[in-house]
Q: What sequence folds into this?
């Protein structure tokens, strides 16, 4: 590999339990994180920021949330879109009702509201498991979307039925609304996802994560050794919905600018689920990889014909996109059901030994 | 408060009693819709029963079957031949699915298989649209969509035909599973792939048989739904409608799919007509799910599903 | 390893049926039915502190069911479970675990998606208190607690000699090691009462010797009371203080290993005689 990883012996448990036990890894990651804050706003064009990087960050947060619930705690959820909607509409109501409220606080509060809703819809999970639970989460998905469609209070009685993000500043810089630059929005999204990725990593490597994984792997044995199932599952729903709620708010405030309930329908739930599955269930890195994959592939497919010089109709393109999408999902599931994160791990292992085969 | 309670608990029933003919029509409509749901649910139950896979693509298979049939008919192929060809296509599809999806994923966890069927769903959607076009098509194989009146109650020929067809299919399938050798083998496979393999059950053949039968069920469902509402993309969303049916009826029970379908169909119609106006309508989007969810809380395995006895 | 794990002093491990001391666990006339199937009929067993009690019997006799009742996973239709003098019959499993009762399972119930170390750490979950926000930051008391329990888990790892596999995902281990890890997870909880369901199943002679040694070590060092289900009669004879035999959900014998071995009813139901 690029740097030698051997020879670093841990002498304390603290060193062994670190997120990046190898010193060079830590250095590289910190450097990359710093670069991510600085480089793209200076270098990347508007298109790259708006169409690729910002949605990537927003969806990475949603994927993190769903990964916590489905990947770590083992509760299959098809209601991600609904919880994102709760966050988005809460943020809208809060920021329009309290314009003086800092947008960061608005996002966090929206997350809390989404978490509370998540707890309510998570209650059936004690009795219902597996596919049945997935279907139960569909109930929450459909109900929430219907609610936001039906009750005009949520859109402040706008006849168009859409919610639009008002302009708000952070530290004097406009970060939402029509006057916010893509760079500013990018930095906010990056800040949120970086902090919450760290939080997620801390949670899953400690007491909370172990309880979740125990419930996921053998819920009965887990209960017999002392894990309290309802508490553990509801906590997973709460935190997952918190993340998805903030992602939903970001979707409207930092990416789309304005949205209708269609932006949060069942297709969104599937989209985020794909990110988690392709990226890798039960992996923080996987959430990022999956989000990147799902964001990039459609863009790639849409632009490929132009790049190759073919002229393809929009409808046909959409159909091919669907086919390739479906095909890729099948391909991944066959080749590596544990997702890109596992492929990454395998790749690193191979690189360590290179040029030896084993 | 009292007003609210009256509106929810008293007024709807008063409405029902006040116009019994209408109530009967609503009920019949619900039964008919329910049976149509059951037709789709049957396909799910078959595949789940026999291969342990929850086939999310069942809805799109219904669409695909209908598209193929209509496409062939539009090309001038006479109806019986078109039907036969569609059957061949669905069997070929079953072969393809076994080869490309099931065999490589044998013995993977259920969620992986479920995700694979979602991938299949997208693929078939794109493929079907590409092959046959995305317009709404009219499917007419000779069942008149006309109404007639019996004792003051209005009934629809098409819905009756669908109901009878569904009933016949259930009976046939139930017998097939319980009485025949293949049926027994199917049940073994659903239980444990590896164990079934180890006693010599030909997994590959079984899967092809099952998915072909599910394909046939999809054709029937496609004909019924396509005649009623035209062959269009939204048929693939039937999968989502069938889910509450499956929850109620249990994922592994053929009669359960029927009973579940009836309950959901009738419940949904009654809810929409008598309670819907209270909340502004369009509750059918989620009513079926909430109904199913309520059932699940009391019986986590559904009405007919096998009781899950957890062992340690 | 000095008794740093157990908080109690070495108890008086008297002969079977220790006089003048209340039993740690009383199973009183437990009856369990699953529909028409009578899994246990009026089974009563006393287990005294520091005893090693073996439960034997043919398959389907109700042995695992009995353990499941003690764990709180099944609740009996009749009868009581009295632990440390209090009625605990209707407790939920996680409350039973909180009393100091730990368990291994017939079909190894390890958490396959976690490493061996994490599996053992789940055994410590009951002892970990929640500092949720600090957990999220992995800082201060949360971090200290995590490291403390890591140290405790490492002591168990040393005790059972599984250092080499501590970072291996549990699902990849061979069967014998999985059983040992399961024992480690149970021990990590520092239990007063250890329930072992066929801890030696599927092991070869050497592995059985190792496992027997570990069980005896646990008993000698920490004074843990042990109830184990076991089919290997030589193991049963070697390590148990008392043997209880079940058949068709009924208790058919209860006494010293020698006495039970010679009991005609037990021989007829289960042991059989050696044929020349």
A:
């Amino acid at each position: 590999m690029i740097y030698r990883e051997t020879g670093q012996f841990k002498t304390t448990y603290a060193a062994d339990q670190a997120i990046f036990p190898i010193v060079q890894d830590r250095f590289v990651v910190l450097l990359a994180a710093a670069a991510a804050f600085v480089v793209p706003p200076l270098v990347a064009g508007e298109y790259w920021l708006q169409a690729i990087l910002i949605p990537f960050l927003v969806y990475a947060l949603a994927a993190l949330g769903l990964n916590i619930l489905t990947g770590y705690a083992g509760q299959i959820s098809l209601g991600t879109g609904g919880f994102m909607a709760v966050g988005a509409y809460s943020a809208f109501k809060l920021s329009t009702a309290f314009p003086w409220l800092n947008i960061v606080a608005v996002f966090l509060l929206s997350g809390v509201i989404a978490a509370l809703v998540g707890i309510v819809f998570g209650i059936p999970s004690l009795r219902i498991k597996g596919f049945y639970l997935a279907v139960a989460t569909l109930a929450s998905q459909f109900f929430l979307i219907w609610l936001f469609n039906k009750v005009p209070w949520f859109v402040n009685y706008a006849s168009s039925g859409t919610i639009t993000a008002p302009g708000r500043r952070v530290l004097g810089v406009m970060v939402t609304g029509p006057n916010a630059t893509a760079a500013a929005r990018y930095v906010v999204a990056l800040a949120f996802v970086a902090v919450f990725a760290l939080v997620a990593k801390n949670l899953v490597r400690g007491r909370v994560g172990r309880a979740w994984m125990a419930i996921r792997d053998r819920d009965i044995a887990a209960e017999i050794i002392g894990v309290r199932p309802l508490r553990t599952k509801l906590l997973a729903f709460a935190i997952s919905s918190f993340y998805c709620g903030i992602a939903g708010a970001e979707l409207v405030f930092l990416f789309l600018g304005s949205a209708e309930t269609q932006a949060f329908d069942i297709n969104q739930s599937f989209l985020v689920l794909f990110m988690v599955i392709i990226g890798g269930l039960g992996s923080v890195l996987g959430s990022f990889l999956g989000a990147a994959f799902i964001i990039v592939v459609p863009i790639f497919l849409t632009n490929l014909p132009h790049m190759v010089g073919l002229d393809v109709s929009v409808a046909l393109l959409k159909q091919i996109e669907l086919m390739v999408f479906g095909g890729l999902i099948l391909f991944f599931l066959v080749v590596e059901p544990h997702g890109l994160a596992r492929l990454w791990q395998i790749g690193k292992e191979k690189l360590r030994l290179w040029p030896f085969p084993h | 408060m009292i007003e609210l309670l009256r509106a929810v608990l008293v007024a709807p029933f008063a409405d029902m009693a006040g116009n019994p003919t209408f109530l009967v029509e609503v009920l019949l409509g619900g039964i008919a819709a329910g049976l149509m749901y059951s037709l789709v649910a049957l396909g799910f139950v078959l595949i789940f029963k026999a291969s342990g896979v929850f086939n999310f693509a069942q809805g799109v298979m219904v669409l695909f079957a209908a598209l193929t049939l209509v496409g062939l008919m539009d090309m001038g192929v006479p109806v019986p031949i078109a039907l036969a060809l569609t059957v061949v296509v669905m069997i070929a599809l079953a072969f393809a699915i076994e080869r490309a999806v099931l065999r490589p994923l044998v013995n993977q966890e259920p969620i992986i298989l479920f995700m694979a069927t979602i991938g299949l769903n997208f693929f078939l959607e794109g493929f079907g649209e590409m092959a046959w076009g995305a317009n709404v098509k009219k499917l007419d194989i000779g069942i008149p969509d006309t109404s007639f009146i019996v004792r003051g109650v209005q009934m629809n020929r098409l819905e009756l035909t669908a109901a009878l067809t569904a009933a016949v299919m259930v009976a046939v399938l139930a017998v097939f599973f319980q009485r025949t050798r293949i049926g027994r083998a199917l049940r073994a496979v659903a239980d444990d792939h590896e164990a079934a393999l180890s006693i010599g059950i030909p997994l590959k053949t079984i899967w092809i048989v099952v998915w072909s039968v599910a394909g046939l069920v999809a054709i029937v469902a496609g004909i019924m739904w396509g005649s009623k509402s035209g062959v269009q993309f939204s048929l693939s969303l039937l999968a989502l409608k069938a889910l509450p049916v499956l929850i109620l009826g249990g994922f592994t029970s053929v009669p359960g799919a029927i009973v579940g379908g009836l309950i959901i169909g009738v419940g949904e119609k009654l809810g929409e007509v008598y309670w819907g106006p209270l909340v502004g309508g369009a509750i059918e989007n989620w009513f079926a799910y909430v109904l199913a969810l309520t059932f699940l809380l009391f019986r986590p395995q559904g009405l007919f599903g096998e009781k899950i006895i957890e062992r340690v | 390893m000095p008794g740093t794990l157990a908080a109690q002093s070495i108890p008086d491990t008297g002969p079977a049926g220790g006089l003048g001391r209340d039993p740690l666990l009383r199973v009183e006339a437990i009856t369990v039915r699953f529909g028409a199937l009578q899994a246990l009929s009026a089974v009563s067993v006393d287990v005294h502190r520091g005893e090693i009690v073996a439960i034997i019997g043919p398959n389907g006799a109700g042995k695992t069911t009995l353990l499941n009742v003690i764990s709180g996973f099944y609740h009996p239709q009749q009868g009581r479970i009295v632990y440390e003098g209090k009625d605990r019959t209707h407790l939920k499993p996680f409350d039973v675990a909180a009393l100091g009762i730990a368990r291994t399972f017939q079909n190894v119930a390890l958490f396959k998606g976690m490493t061996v170390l994490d599996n053992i750490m789940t055994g410590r979950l009951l002892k970990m208190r929640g500092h949720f926000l600090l957990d999220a930051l992995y800082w201060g008391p949360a971090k200290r607690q995590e490291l403390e329990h890591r140290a405790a888990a490492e002591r168990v790892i040393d005790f059972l000699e599984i250092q080499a596999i501590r970072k291996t995902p549990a699902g990849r281990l061979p069967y014998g090691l999985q059983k040992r890890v399961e024992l480690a997870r149970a021990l990590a909880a520092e239990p007063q009462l250890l329930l072992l369901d066929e801890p030696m199943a599927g092991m070869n002679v050497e592995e059985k010797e190792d496992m027997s040694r570990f069980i005896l070590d646990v008993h000698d060092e920490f004074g843990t009371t042990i109830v184990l289900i076991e089919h290997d009669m030589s193991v049963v004879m070697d390590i148990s203080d008392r043997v209880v035999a079940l058949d068709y959900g009924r208790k058919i014998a209860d006494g010293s290993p020698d006495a039970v071995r010679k009991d005609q009813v037990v021989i007829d139901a289960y042991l059989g005689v050696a044929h020349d």
Summary: The CA atoms of residues 5 and 190 of chain C lie 6 Å apart. DSSP finds ten helices and ten strands in chain C. The longest helix of chain C spans residues 140-159. Chain C has two domains: 8-100+190-276, 115-189.
